[in-house]
Each structure stands twice: as C-alpha cells, then as structure tokens.
Amino acid sequence: MKTDDEDEEFFIGWQAKQPARMRQTTVRVVILLAGLAAVAAILFGRAQRAPDLAFYEWTNIQTFEGIVRMAPHPHLLVARENSGGFSAFPLVGPTKFGIAPEWCGNLDGKAVRIQGGTIHRSGGTMIEVTSEAPEALPDDRALPELRAPIDLGEHSLVGEIVDAKCYHGAMNPGRFKPHRACATVCVSGGIPPMLVVDGVDGQSIALLLVGSHGEMLNSSVLPLLARPVRIEGRVTDDNGLLILRARTESIRPL
To answer: Which CATH number fits domain 54-136: 2.40.50, 3.40.50, 3.90.930, 1.10.620?
Structure first.
C-alpha cells in the first residue's frame, strides 16, 4: 500500500528534471499563458486607430498659381478648374518654420506663382514653400471672383490642438501625446496651430485656430498642445479655409 508521502511529487532545482506530473502541469500553464498573451495582443491591436493616409512630397517640387493671402495665416487660394471657386492651401516653410511676414512683400491679395511640395491627408492639403519669394502674375490674369467669408456661427468645440504641418502629413498621425514635443517646436517656429475635432462618424475636421480678431495664438496654445481642450468661438469658411476665431478666455483643458 502507498502512503500519502509516496503519492506526492517533490522537485528540487538542482535535480536533472521535474517529476512527470509536475512537468505536464508546467507545460499546460505555459501554453495557456502564451495563448492568452496572443489573444490580448490581437485584441489590443484591433482596438488601435489606424493612422490616416498622409503624404509628404517634399522632394516633388511643383509650381502653383493663385491668390496669396497672409492673414490670418499665410495661404494660397488656387482656382478649381472645373467646379469654380477656390481651394485654400495653407503655406509653411521648410523644416519646422512658418512663413515670415516679409516673404510676401507687397503681393498680399495678389495673383502669384510659387514653388513647393505638397503635404496632404484626407480633408486638406498644405504647401511647403521652397521659392524665396512669390512671383507676381499679370493683373489681367483671369481668376474666379473671391466670395465673401461664410459665417458658420458660434460654436463650443472639443478637440485637440495640433501643429498644421505635421497633422497634414509631415508626420503620421501627427497628433496625440507622443507628438507633443514635436508640435511644440513646430508651433514655436511659426507653423499655425489647428483644432482637430473628431466626429461621431470617425471623420475629423481641422480648423485654423486664431484669436477672436484674427491674431496668432501660437505662444498662447503651447501648454495645451496634444491635450483635449474645449474652445468657444466663431467659425467661418473663407473660400474653403475653415477658421475658428477663438475667445481666448474660453480655451480650457479637459
């Protein structure tokens, strides 16, 4: 007759191998844990938001013609070939700098030709300017008539403040907490901030962020970059460029 002591398995680390039943139990536990880790990895991966398609064509230099405007931030209004009206392309300089006020000279509001590469993602395109200065086009150049800005009313919006260049596609996704340090450098260098609002349908809307009188807010929003915020202000559509004229006292982190 076996005693209880004879039925128990005992293992000491310096022994050559574990007893059979203990070895089988260890193998089952390892397989179970490996399976759980694989399932957790798959579920975690599926829960992540895939980055939008974005392209930074900094080596593909193109020529653009349109009306240059320096306020509230430099942008180029390019006439649409078929549908009429204009498409608005915000302008930035190379690397992490915006456009200097003197770059435009006396051509603000005039038809010009510039060179640069595009930065674009779904919903918007930006031009990284490479030409030292815009080239004036003849005054008799046929262009569609600029329409007056459309007032879209007062809004209270929840979103994230980003730097326009990285968000448009210089980086991808170009937002959220891991991008905060990069966004701080870009906005400090004069690249315009934007407020990105995520819709319930998964689509995002980006609005150029300025003060209530059109003033730049770059230095004011630095502590709030890549954080959820609520901003109240008036939204306008200026020939395709969505602008949020924020009441600065209303900007608060959530």
So the answer is: 2.40.50
Backbone angles phi, psi at 231, to 5 degrees: -135, 135
Q: Are the C-beta atoms of 51 and 173 separated by less than 8 Å?
A: yes
Is the pTM above the cut of 0.90?
A: no
pLDDT at 40: 78
Domain boundaries, the chain: 54-136, 150-253
**Contact assessment for residue 136 and residue 107, using Cβ atoms and an 8 Å cutoff:** yes
State the DSSP code for 16: S
- 89/103 Cα distance (integer angstroms): 16
Q: Is the pLDDT of residue 89 over 90?
A: yes
CA distances from 153 to 40, 73, 143, 146, 147 (A): 46, 21, 29, 21, 17
